[in-house]
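User: Sequence recovery, please. Input:
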């Protein structure tokens, strides 16, 4: 696991790093755009990847996108990636069978 994936940053530190209010960060979590882990005591913990993700979200919002549009665009991108991976897998399988 990369250091960027480790959930170790508090919401206060994320707020300072991103310039986003704690309230806004919690709102993006409610909208299922970011997924912090929770400690046993309920404290949110974020990763450096989450910080980058929040900055991307903030930039998209600043450009006029709505949260539902961000989610929809990401859903479409994941669907395209899945189709691309399936096609690549099929091409590899076809090429491998031809060598036998």
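Assistant: Recovered sequence (100 residues):
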């Amino acid at each position: 696991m990369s250091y960027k994936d480790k959930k170790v940053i508090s919401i206060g530190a994320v707020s300072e790093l991103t310039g986003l209010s704690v309230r806004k960060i919690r709102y993006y979590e409610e909208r299922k755009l970011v997924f912090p882990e929770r400690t046993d005591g309920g404290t949110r913990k974020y990763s450096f990847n989450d910080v980058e993700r929040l900055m991307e979200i903030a930039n998209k919002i600043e450009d006029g996108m709505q949260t539902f549009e961000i989610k929809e665009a990401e859903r479409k991108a994941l669907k395209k990636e899945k189709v691309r991976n399936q096609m690549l897998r099929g091409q590899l399988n076809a090429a491998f069978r031809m060598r036998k």
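Residues 1-64 form a domain with the Multidrug-efflux Transporter Regulator; Chain: A; Domain 2 fold (CATH 1.10.1660.10).
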